[in-house]
Structure formats: C-alpha cells, structure tokens
Design a protein that fits this description.
alpha+beta; 6-stranded mixed β-sheet; Nucleoside Triphosphate Pyrophosphohydrolase; about 30% strand; globular; about 190 residues
C-alpha cells in the first residue's frame, strides 16, 4: 500500500504557529493493517462530554504544562485516550492549523505513522467508540458532501453509521489532498 503513503500530500514538515490563539493538538494516527491497507484511528466522543459530544475526532486536546509543544500534546493525548504508545509513533509532519468554531482554538494536527497495528484501549471517560477506516476511502471526492454555515464550507463523510464532519473532516480532506494545505484561520 505504498501508493497511499505517497498520496498523503497535505503533510508539512514545519510545526505550524498557533497565530497567538490558545492551542490544542491532535494526532492523526496512521498504520498499515494486516490487510495491507493504510488505516487511520478516529474516536467517537461520548455524548455526555462537555465539548463535541458524539463527534468523530482524532485523539487530542489541550496542552498540559509539561508538554513541550503540539507533538508532545498529541502523543500524550493519544496515549490517554486510546492507548497509543508514544514511542511507537514516527512523526511524519503536520497538517495546517485549523481554527475551531465552537471554541477559539488553533488545533495543530500532528500526523504520525505507527510502527505496527496498534492495540487500542479506549478510555471510557473520553472515547465511546474507536473507528479504523482505510484511508483510501477518503480520496473519493464523490463520497463527500458539504453545507455552507456562516459563509464556510462544512464537509461531511458518512462512515460506518457515523458522520465525520467539521474540523476533523477538514483535516482529513487536507491529509488526502482534497483541500489546499493552508491554515483555516478565525473569521475576521
């Protein structure tokens, strides 16, 4: 499945700046499954979460005081949420930062390749369900739909009875080259 790895065109090598806004980070965990397909780890947040309840997301969150940057934050959060061992992640780079609408945060997506099929353990407090779809399905532009909300395109992708949408959908589209690799900044 080397071809899929080469088609992930949205990854940059320089850690993006947060543009002066509070920051958060997510890990975009990729691995080659036993079937040879490159897969990505997504979580479904519990409905009772104070933010983004029921949404599909990459593991991640806000930094802790001991985090030295977005990579530390993303790796720590992925370990806490789904049990990904930080040492098993080869950081490939970053997607452009994305401003979240619900909270004024710049989210830094850290793209990582896992050395093997992960043994995932969801944190019951933060994860309702783990999804591991093949990345190849996200390249199909016809499978995506969008709506315009407050002048912005919001993308949606139906996935195993769930819907990937919002900031995570935007990141996924950037990963596979369906969106230009530019930051999504707050409205002016």
């Amino acid at each position: 499945m080397q071809d899929v790895w080469q088609c992930l065109t949205g990854i940059g090598s320089v850690e993006p700046a947060g543009n002066g806004l509070p920051r958060a980070a997510v890990l975009v965990p990729l691995y080659e499954g036993p079937d040879g397909e490159v897969r990505v780890v997504l979580t479904k947040r519990p409905l009772d979460m104070p933010t983004h309840g029921g949404h599909l997301a990459f593991p991640g969150g806000r930094p802790d005081p001991d985090d030295r940057g977005p990579t530390d934050t993303a790796l720590r959060e992925a370990a806490e949420e789904v049990g990904i061992v930080p040492e098993s992640v080869e950081v490939l780079g970053f997607l452009p930062p994305i401003h979240t609408v619900e909270f004024s945060l710049m989210v830094i997506p850290v793209v990582g390749r896992l050395g093997a099929v992960p043994h995932l353990r969801p944190s019951p407090r933060e994860v309702d369900k783990i999804l591991e779809p093949p990345v190849a399905i996200f390249f199909d532009a016809e499978a995506w739909r969008h709506e315009v909300w407050a002048g912005r395109k919001v993308w949606f992708f139906d996935l195993d009875g769930e819907v990937l949408w919002g900031a995570t959908a935007h990141m996924m589209r950037q990963l596979v080259g369906l969106e230009p690799p530019v930051p999504r900044l707050p409205p002016s």
